[in-house]
Design a protein that fits this description.
The complex is a heterotrimer.
Chain A (H helix, E strand, L loop, with lengths): L22 H10 L2 H19 L6 H25 L8 H17 L5 H26 L3 H20 L9 H8 L8 H19 L1 H11 L1 H6 L4 H27 L15 H10 L11 H20 L4 H29 L4
Chain B lengths: L11 E10 L2 E11 L4 E5 L6 H8 L7 E6 L2 E3 L4 H6 L2 E4 L11 H5 L6 E2 L2 E2 L1 H14 L15 H14 L4 E5 L7 H16 L3 E5 L3 H7 L2 E6 L2 E8 L5 H9 L20 E8 L6 E5 L4 E5 L6 H8 L5 E8 L2 E2 L5 H8 L1 E4 L3 H5 L6 H6 L3 H4 L8 H14 L16 H15 L3 E5 L7 H16 L3 E5 L3 H7 L2 E6 L2 E7 L4 H13 L1
Parallel strand pairs in B: 3-10, 3-11, 6-9, 9-10, 15-20, 15-21, 18-19, 19-20
Antiparallel strand pairs in B: 1-2, 1-4, 4-5, 7-8, 11-12, 13-14, 13-16, 16-17, 21-22
Chain C lengths: L1 H6 L2 H20 L6 H26 L7 H17 L5 H26 L3 H20 L9 H8 L1 E2 L2 E2 H18 L2 H11 L1 H6 L4 H27 L10 H11 L11 H20 L5 H24 L10
Helix pairs in contact in C: 2-13, 3-8, 3-11, 3-12, 3-13, 4-5, 4-6, 4-11, 5-6, 5-11, 7-11, 8-9, 9-11, 12-13, 12-14, 13-14
Classes of the chains: A mainly alpha, B alpha/beta, C mainly alpha.
Chain lengths: 350, 506, 323
């Protein structure tokens, strides 16, 4: 499977016959050429650069705030990754996240339910909205792009209509203080939540029949279907998983803000699109489906947050950071393609 | 644009051309010489490299080594444009029309007529009409291609290639959907063009047509020349077949192992499907190989798809082990009824090329392997898959090798292995040896025979008649989504092939 | 003759009926709907929306998408306003500058998409944030107010009963219709969108088609961006923010197939009209503007579903097709 930490599936391996001396050697060379390795180097280089030149980059406050952003944006990226598995995407991830967070706020404040049941309801709501996307994609056989383009506007619009665009700002103290905890002075607990989500996803894709079936269905739905896998059902699950994890991200962002704000992900939740794609794509998850890298996505997020924070500390101005992130995404995909093209030339394919 | 212009044909030479795709050497130092004004046949079994050679001649692929010469001048085509500009026109095997566009616009797509910078429909219609009339195709050039029948579409493709007034015309299976009458008209046109000096390369698996039309022949086998540019005069059908398959068309002595006592493993009674089959009745017994023969588009693979639940059965009855069943979907067929299907298009539908060998084989059984919390480790997966890698002699460096990096023969073994892992009792194998080298081919034939002997009911779908006659205990012939004949196969090639031909053309 | 025949093809006719019945129903329910003011509002909105909808439409025609459409419009608007206010360029030079920038942005999208061989989605997502970041960075999120008076006048003046913006929009619409319906590069684009491999075998260059479509999209986005400046009377870096949904909705309602190969310009115009009608209706019936979002989403879903149904009736849907 391609879900190991050392996922190199986006590069074609050397053709059969060109046997390499030892499996260990191959694993090593694969690792050195992988996104993972590249990201680790890039992270190290930028930490060094920013550490030297950006005042306050390595301060405790800043490291804490980076860890918090990594926590939230990491979960956003992982959520998108679960639906990239199908070869599709979810434009409405931000909309679903905000809707679910609003459900949590409503359940806490208006229904007066406890934190645990409220969170449960929120995650279920996210999963349900995701499943709606999945069901529409599977039954109409339309591309998920246009389906989620439509549903993001429906979900977000409906949420605003129902809530009157009023957020929930009386979250229980436990939640708001949780968002402010500093472990060892530098680690946000939100980072740990992200790691927990990542660990669960890693387990699913790497060690379960369910995960393997989702990857197979995403890689080649025709072959998977003819192998007796319930491809349609698996696709709905992928979308539901995306919604559920998106809901977690929505709650995490609310915890950081200390309130559930309908505009926290921008109009229609579209502001989350860039972080959502940056992390998995930098980490080597294929947009064509069937291949994920959980660890790559985490490293991708770390890289992005370090760049963001470093540029911020350099006082580049927050607007230019958006440009920089766009350039990072562009650079990463072009680099990846260049490498793939070179590997292809070597193995002589059309 | 006048039909009476005499064009000097091209002398086409292919020198030592090689081309490899991932894991497959498609062409290995192939040579071909076609003289000006010659009608030259390019023959070979499926996967012998004919289409690759044509794609090189039309600029779709570029050779890894070797040269193409036109009138003695070396040419390298980087895109199809270059080939068109050099005077090469082609009818490809795949349909290549823009279905929303009109017949006229499709035919003139390479060089559309314009008036004041706008597409001139009237001129296109006028220019097109001539080529349609030449092929006796009575269709309004303004009709969108999406409204045409399969045969009409094929004729439009031919008209499109003719309209380029190329000096070298390549035709890859141009008659696959045509009636004998339409084929006759086409051949008359081709002969006239050749007489005017146009060079023609003709690919067909219908040997009768080749002997009818062509003067010279080049045969490819496993990507190499089995013969190069030989005159057809003096050659017999048997000679050509020997060149194509590397041996005589002799029947294999593989005794029928059919256990006809007891209910058949799979039986169809008057089945109709949503894909258009009507009144299909057949039986596949345990221990027996049922051969399903039919031309492209006759509904063979579609029947297989209906049996495994990928398309709906709308009438009649399907029985498994004598009991009527309704198959809800493919998962139901695979998991609950033990049916397996090896697709003819193993790259698109049979395998997950970017996943590893173990994962491809175990895909059918993950749901059975899983333990608490859906746990399936690599070790469990490998233990399931490795016996089949060993028993089918799949040549792979490791279980973690990506299937896309295996050779065609080994890929096909993987796509059979997954059904062995699933323990399928009824196995449908669609074109088992397309694009596979000779040795693996023999191995796969043995494998299919063994599977049947060991207690599976096997349905083999093939358009390779010698293969089918050799393997099948009984042969069913499909034509136009109906079953036209079923008979016990004596494994006498002459008798069987004549009966099949009678069923199809009679 | 042909244009009329195409216009009356079944899908457009249905849409026309929707527009007419919708308009009639609205004017019955709210007689004030048919006032000159309201019609004017609809026509001004139409002029702008139809241009960026076609900007997305030409990309849809080759089976791609342009997420950066709004960001391109925004960058052009900022450059247009900024070059007048800061550099003091005359209007014509500022316009030229804007058109150049938009065309270049589109070209960049096409070139990158072609070179990378990746889906235009991810490329234009990246350029979206680049263009948007530049616009915000230059302006520090503040609008340029120094827009020339002639530009402001163009945004508000009438030519008889018609807004001047419509007089610019109509030739552009006709131009795109002619380009796709009659001109060779346009036909080649549609051929490429309908069946890339077949088009390539007919000698149509993949690179040229991808770059052409994206460049055209950038050009149309530029025109729409500058028209927004004229309409708002200032160059705001928020221009283009809400284009995305409508830019997909209108062509798709008009029968465009997202997999490429078909774009009805008449249908797109009617799609834009339907969108503006809904907008107007909700304003007049005093309902929450977020209903528009919900309605638009539902419309897109309904329209693509309908198109899909029509496709499969044409027999274009293969047997085992998934997503």
């Amino acid at each position: 499977m391609n879900v190991t930490a050392l996922s190199t599936s986006s590069r074609p391996s050397p053709p059969a016959g060109e046997r390499e001396p030892a499996a260990k050697n191959r694993a090593l060379s694969g690792f050195l050429g992988s996104n993972i390795f590249g990201l680790i180097i890039a992270i190290a280089v930028f930490v060094l650069l920013f550490g030297l030149f950006a005042n306050g980059f390595l301060s405790k406050v800043n490291i804490y705030s980076i860890s918090r952003s990594i926590g939230i944006n990491g979960v956003i990226g992982l959520a998108m990754m679960t639906v990239l598995v199908t070869g599709g995407l979810n434009l409405g991830l931000g909309a679903i996240a905000v809707c679910s967070a609003m459900v949590v706020g409503w359940s806490l404040q208006n229904l007066g339910l406890g934190i645990a049941p409220s969170l449960m309801i929120g995650v279920l709501a996210g999963a349900a909205l995701g499943a709606v996307n999945g069901l529409i994609v599977v039954t109409t056989r339309l591309h998920s792009f246009v389906v989620t383009l439509a549903t993001m506007s429906i979900f977000f619009g409906t949420m605003i209509l129902l809530s009157g665009a009023q957020g929930f700002n009386a979250l229980p103290r436990v939640m708001t203080t949780f968002g402010r905890i500093r472990m060892y002075g530098v680690v946000s607990p939100l980072l740990l939540i992200m790691l927990l989500v990542a660990a669960i996803l890693y387990y699913i894709y790497r060690y379960t029949a369910f995960g393997r079936e989702m990857l197979a269905a995403g890689a080649n739905p025709f072959a998977a279907k003819l192998s007796g896998l319930p491809v349609e059902r698996l696709f709905v699950w992928c979308h539901a998983l995306c919604g559920a994890i998106g809901a977690i991200a929505g709650v995490m962002a609310s915890v950081r803000n200390g309130a559930v704000v309908p505009s926290m992900a921008g109009p229609l939740g579209a502001d989350w699109l860039l972080p959502a794609f940056l992390a998995p794509v930098l980490g080597g998850t294929l947009l064509t489906g069937g291949s994920v890298s959980v660890i790559g996505a985490i490293l991708g997020t770390i890289f992005v947050e370090i760049i963001t924070s470093g540029l911020y500390m350099l006082q580049i101005g927050e607007f230019w950071i958006q440009t920089a992130l766009g350039l990072v995404l562009l650079g990463a995909i072009l680099l990846e393609r260049g490498r793939a093209a070179m590997a292809l030339q070597r193995s002589t394919r059309r | 644009m006048s039909a009476t212009t005499t064009k000097s044909g091209l002398l086409v030479e292919v020198r030592d051309v090689s081309k490899a795709f991932v894991g497959v050497q498609a062409l290995d130092k192939v040579n071909l010489t076609v003289g000006a004004g010659q009608i030259h046949a390019l023959l070979g079994e499926n996967g012998a490299g004919k289409s690759t050679l044509i794609k090189i001649l039309t600029g779709v692929h570029q050779p890894d080594s070797g040269t193409v010469l036109l009138d003695g001048v070396e040419k390298s085509f980087r895109t199809p444009r270059d080939a068109i500009a050099a005077g090469i026109g082609a009818v490809h095997q795949e349909r290549n029309l823009i279905t929303r566009f009109s017949v006229a616009e499709n035919i003139t797509l390479e060089d559309p007529p314009t008036r004041f910078g706008m597409f001139d429909e009237a001129a296109a219609v006028a220019a097109t009409r001539r080529w349609l009339e030449l092929l006796h195709l009575d269709t309004d050039p303004r009709t969108p291609v999406s409204r045409l029948s399969v045969a009409q579409v094929q004729l439009v493709e031919i008209a499109k290639a003719l309209s380029l007034e190329s000096r070298f015309l390549l035709l890859d299976e141009p008659t696959s959907s045509l009636t004998p009458h339409e084929t006759g008209t086409l051949f008359a046109v081709l002969r006239r063009l050749a007489a005017e000096g146009v060079t023609i390369l003709f690919v067909s698996h219908k040997l009768e047509e080749v002997f009818d039309l062509c003067t010279h022949v080049t045969v490819l086998r496993d990507g190499r020349n089995a013969c190069e540019s030989r005159p057809l005069t003096g050659m017999t059908r048997a000679d050509v077949v020997r060149l194509m398959i590397g041996r005589d068309e002799r029947a294999f002595a593989a005794p029928s192992m059919g256990l006809r006592s007891g209910p058949p493993a799979l039986e169809l009674r008057g089945v109709a499907t949503s894909l258009g089959h009507r009144d299909i009745s057949l039986q596949a017994h345990t221990g027996e190989i049922l051969g399903l023969y039919g031309l492209v588009g006759a509904g063979r693979s579609e029947l297989a798809r209906s049996i495994i639940g990928a398309a709906r059965i709308t009438g009649g009855e399907m029985l498994i082990g004598g009991k009527p069943v309704t198959i809800k979907n493919v998962a139901d067929a695979v998991r609950n009824h033990g049916i397996g299907y090896v697709s003819e298009d193993r790259k698109a539908e049979g395998l997950i090329l970017q996943h590893d060998v173990a994962g491809n084989i175990a895909a059918t059984v993950w749901h059975r392997l899983q333990r608490l919390l859906g746990f399936v480790s690599d070790g469990m997966q490998n233990r399931t898959a490795s016996p089949f890698v060993a028993s089918l002699d799949i040549r792979t460096p490791s279980m973690a090798q990506l299937v896309g990096n295996l050779s065609g023969g080994n890929q096909q073994k993987v796509s059979v292995a997954k059904w062995l892992a699933a323990g399928s009792k009824i196995l449908i194998v669609d074109e088992p040896t397309v694009g596979i080298d000779i040795r693996s081919k023999a191995y796969l034939h043995d494998l299919i025979l063994t599977l049947a002997r060991e207690g599976a009911a096997v349905i083999v779908i093939s358009s390779d008649m010698p293969e089918l006659v050799m393997l099948a205990d009984r042969i069913a012939v499909v034509k136009g989504f109906r079953l036209v004949d079923t008979f016990d196969n004596s494994r006498e090639y002459a008798a069987a092939s004549q009966r099949i031909m009678r069923a199809i053309h009679g | 003759m042909n244009l009329i025949r195409n216009a009356l093809r079944a899908d457009s006719l249905g849409l026309l009926l929707v527009v007419l019945i919708g308009g009639a129903a609205l004017s019955l329910a709210r007689p004030e709907f048919l006032t000159a003011y309201n019609i004017d509002v609809i026509l001004v909105g139409f002029s702008l929306t139809v241009i960026y909808a076609l900007g997305q439409g030409v990309i849809i025609a080759i089976g791609h998408m342009n997420l950066a459409l709004g960001a391109t419009g925004c960058l052009v608007a900022v450059a247009f306003g900024g070059s007048m206010q800061v550099w003091g360029l005359p209007v014509w030079a500022a316009m030229l500058f804007g058109l150049l920038i938009g065309t270049f942005c589109g070209f960049l999208n096409g070139w990158l998409t072609h070179k990378s061989g990746l889906t235009s989605f991810i490329i234009t997502l990246a350029t979206l944030s680049i263009f948007k970041g530049i616009s915000l960075g230059i302006t520090q999120a503040q609008p340029f107010y120094g827009v020339a008076d002639s530009v402001k006048a163009f945004g508000s003046d009438r030519w008889g009963p018609l807004p001047e913006t419509l007089l610019v929009a109509l030739p552009i619409v006709i131009g795109v219709a002619l380009f796709l319906g009659k001109m060779i590069p346009g036909r080649q684009m549609l051929a490429f969108g309908g069946n890339p491999n077949a088009a390539e075998l007919s000698g149509i260059s993949r690179a040229r088609m991808v770059i052409l479509a994206h460049t055209l999209s950038g050009l149309l986005a530029a025109i729409a961006g500058m028209m927004s400046v004229a309409r708002l009377q200032l160059a705001s870096p928020a221009i283009g923010d809400e284009w995305l949904i409508a830019s997909f909705a209108a062509p798709v309602i008009g029968g465009a197939v997202l997999s490429g190969g078909h774009l009805s310009v008449v249908g797109t115009c009617l799609g834009v009209l339907i969108v503006s009608l809904i907008n107007q209706a909700l304003v007049m019936l005093a309902v929450d503007p977020f209903y528009v979002q919900v309605m638009l989403g539902a419309l897109i879903l309904g329209a693509v579903g309908l198109n899909r149904l029509r496709e499969s009736r044409l027999g274009n849907a293969p047997v085992l097709r998934l997503s």
